[in-house]
Amino acid sequence: RSLSVNALSFGYFLQAVAEQRPQCSVFYASSSHVFPGNGTGRLKEDSEKKPESIYAITKFTGMQICEHYRTEHGLRASVGILFNHESSLRNSSYLSKRIARAAALIAKQGRGILSLGSLEATVDWGAAEDFVDAMHRMLQLDVGDDFIVATGVPHTVAEFAEIAFRCVDLDYRNYVELNPARMTRAPQTRIGNPEKLMHATGWKVTISFEEMVRRLVEYEMRKE
After folding, report:
1. Cα–Cα distance measured from residue 122 to residue 124, given in angstroms and rounded to the nearest whole number
2. What CA–CA distance (Å, rounded) separates 131 from 138?
3. DSSP element (H, E) containing 146
4. Which whole number is the average pLDDT over 148-173?
5. Helix, strand, or coil here: 184?
6. Are strands 155-156 and 122-123 parallel, antiparallel or unpaired?
7. What is the pLDDT at residue 185?
8. What is the largest CA-CA distance in the chain?
9. How far is Cα 39 from Cα 51, in angstroms, rounded to an integer?
10. 26: closest CA among 198, 143, 132, 131?
11. End-to-end CA distance of the chain
């Protein structure tokens, strides 16, 4: 499925654009997973690519297809290499959703436990609203290019949990238990450097990490 959606279908789409609407702007959503995990420093557009899953391989393939149509057909096709971007629309399997939902449920019910694999894992978390703004800005450029979309600021799972539970006046340390069995793979750290995007488009982060977490928890609190 990843190959069909992220590479093959995108290639057919760009070919159609090249033939029918070459003046159009195109945006392709890639992923920070095209980079190896646990690298040092903030990742830039030209940092080493080393996709380590089928999903990441197909995202990298989509990036190469985009570059081909930029150089060979002159398309205004931009790639956003997206780092973690969170919203209330995440499904329940995502860590951000699990933490926000647990904090809200425990606050409502007065009891409960949140099981996490690690509190030390470090993530570059941003708000989806800011990332969509970045996508729109890329589409306004005269020439397409590759851009890192990230906050550039690392935060631990412990920080996320602390803020989420503080939003409902609870201490996360009383409700979080560590269960290493939940870790299906070793934690991987990828922190982005959005300076190229900021310089080209004027983009900047407008929703802080704390505000992002607060919004996620408030959404869960409003649910029945």
Report:
1. 7
2. 11
3. strand 146-149
4. 97
5. coil
6. antiparallel
7. 73
8. 61
9. 13
10. 143
11. 34
Encoded tokens for 27: 């945006």
CA dihedral 90, 93, 97, 102 (to 10 degrees): 150
Chain centroid to CA 90: how far? 11
Sheet with 76-82: list strands edge to edge.
Answer: 25-31, 76-82, 146-149
CA 34 centroid distance within chain: 12
Summarize pLDDT for 13-65 with one digit per residue, the tens. Answer: 999 999 999 999 999 999 999 999 876 789 999 999 999 999 999 999 999 99
How far apart, in whole angstroms, are the C-alpha atoms of residue 3 and residue 221? 38
Q: pTM of the predicted model, to two decimals?
A: 0.93
Q: Which of 7, 139, 30, 35 is nearest to 81 (CA)?
A: 30
Please provide the size of the chain in residues.
224
Residue 109's CB: how many other CB atoms inside 10 A? 8
CA–CA distance from 137 to each of 8, 36, 55, 84, 133 (Å)? 26, 27, 26, 19, 6
Cβ atoms of 214 and 87 within 8 Å: the answer is no
From residue 185, alpha-carbon distances to 87, 154, 197 in Å are 24, 20, 31
